[in-house]
Amino acid sequence: MKKNFAPEDELLFLALGGSGEIGMNVNLYGCRGKWLMVDLGMSFGANEYPGTELLFADLEFIEERGDDLLGIVLTHAHEDHIGAVPYFAADLGVPLYATPFTADLVRRKLAEAGLTGEVELNVIERDHGSIQLGPFEVSYVPLAHSIAEGNALIIETPFGRVFHTGDWKIDEEPLIGEPATEDELTEIGDEGVLALVCDSTNVFNPTPSGSEGAVYRGLLDEVKRHTGKRVLVTTFASNVARLQTLGHVARETGRALCIAGRSLERIIEVSQDNGYLRDFPEPVDFDTAMGLPRGELLILATGGQGEPRAALARIAEGQHPLSVSEGDVVLFSSRQIPGNELAIGRVQNQLAERGITMITDRQSMIHVSGHPGRPELEMLYGWLRPQILVPVHGEIRHMQEQCRLGEESGIPMQVFQKNGDIVRLAPGKPGKLAEVRAGRLVLDGDIIVPANGDAIVTRRRLARDGLLVIAVDRQGGAQVHGIGLPLEEDYDDFIAEAESDVSEAIRKLKGKRDPDAVAEAARLAARRAAQRWSGKKPQTKVLLPSPQGAER
Per residue in 404-445, pLDDT tens? Predict the structure, then answer.
């Protein structure tokens, strides 16, 4: 490989996101001077990046090689696989490829971002044809997942065939779509698979993920148990099979269906436009819903992850046109995404305080995962029989465990990699060649900035330690203002001492008072006073007098 990391007569793999974390999936394949991108996802802002909304993989590596990027192939429509498209696709300037349901959601995202006509979006019909992009020929393979049109990719290259799973599971009763059968996947294995690039999310689960058919029966039984009560179900909006199930449950229990949440409304519309949910019951509006007898209503609401602006949180707070009361029931037909436990607990406590019964997948069969447990992984290994296993879509512990599982299952070679590792898959023995920068970006207001740039680092420090503002006058006196210091009734005494310390520190500067020296003396004196009084080392801002009123 050349120092500029251009792929030579070889097949390379590079994850910029999604390897070492769950979410933000961005994968690159390199061959004969060209690159192919699979998925362009995002994550939601985390606590370590205060004030931010979205988290992205830094695409600097491929942006610098934009002339060699041939296209972006999208496996399915979850946000961690398509969410970054409106923010980066136009700048990357290459075509997008997706099946109809995914393409429809992407098209709407581009329209909302004002990018209609600026990004080429190619719709690949289900079960038809392949995409030829330079040395890569890409075909879709439908697999079950918790969204319509979950797909794996077969990537044919001059050096062998890659089976890139995307997100998947094995479901004997998928309800939506027709995933590839065991025979079809075995036939793919018979034709030869060089590398299996595989979802690692549920590798520690010792049992299969379960079927949507079983969830249908579980939800039906659960709703039937609560005769005469208002029932609210919260689930992932993108789970079209679950929406279809809930439509059937509403009909079979004689309940009208009411939808609360814009993302649910959008998914239902996109689903129906693409041939799904054709027999979904016509929802009733909020006013009609509240006028129905309690046992004749089923509410479907967003917010199962505790999102503060989602419908469920507002209902729990009593700040929504829909309401639930003592004795009513909320079914959490979803799993807790790691990191959301506190937010979910806050909503559940609000509901519990009002006497509302809550049921989760721990008490009843009302949810299954969209990712494969160990038995499903072992079955796929046996059908495809790859030469190389490359775990992705997981934290380090998940991917290392899948390497171990692959070895136990007889896969000849396993390659552990993480974001930024360039791996050669062929020719020769597979392994890591180099490591490149794989940073993080955040959406901060309307601007995309480095996740660990000055703005975010300063904001984190402000949140931890507070702020001091020191205004120095021409006579060497000072006014000190503290924000966010834990002083309460001691604040006035602290301010008096800090101002005295600053004045004394400036007085001790002999000769001509250099502005930089004055600013540093004032900063140190005030900060030391704050540390004595509060134990904190706050951020400081010193304002010095000048003819132009400049600040330091």
Answer: 999 999 999 999 999 999 999 999 999 999 999 999 998 888
Query: Which alpha helices (H) appear in 38-99, and where do they start and end?
Result: 60-63, 79-82, 85-92
DSSP class of residue 484? S
Radius of gyration of the chain (CA): 28
Continuous H helices in 354-490? 374-384, 396-408, 454-465
Looking at 41-190, list the stretches that DSSP marks H as alpha helix, in order from N- to C-terminal side: 60-63, 79-82, 85-92, 100-112, 182-190
Confirm if 421 and 428 have CB atoms less than 8 A apart. no
Q: How many CA atoms, within 13 angstroms, populate the side-chain half-sphere of residue 280?
A: 26
Residues 6+ apart with CB under 8 A from 297: 230, 231, 255, 256, 258, 289
Alpha helices in 366-514, H assignment, sequence order: 374-384, 396-408, 454-465, 491-507
Query: Which pLDDT does position 512 carry in this prediction?
Result: 64
Q: Are 190 and 151 in contact (CB under 8 A)?
A: no
Indicate the residue type of 345. G
Beta strands 357-359 and 329-333, pairing class: parallel
Report yes or no: 365 and 394 within 8 Å, Cβ to Cβ: no
Q: What is the pLDDT of residues 319-368, one digit of tens each?
A: 999 999 999 999 999 988 877 889 999 999 999 999 999 999 999 999 99
The 10s digit of each residue's pLDDT in 437-459 is 999 998 888 889 888 888 888 88
Within 8 A by CB and 6+ apart from 146, the residues are 167, 169, 236, 238, 239, 241, 242, 369, 370
Residue 75 contacts residue 166 (beta carbons within 8 Å): yes
What is the largest distance, in Å, between two alpha-carbon atoms of the chain? 89
What values do phi and psi take at 430, rounded to 5? -70, 150
φ, ψ for residue 162, nearest 5 deg: -105, 135
Stretch among 112-116, 128-132, 329-333, 461-465 having the lowest mean pLDDT: 128-132
pTM of the complete model: 0.90
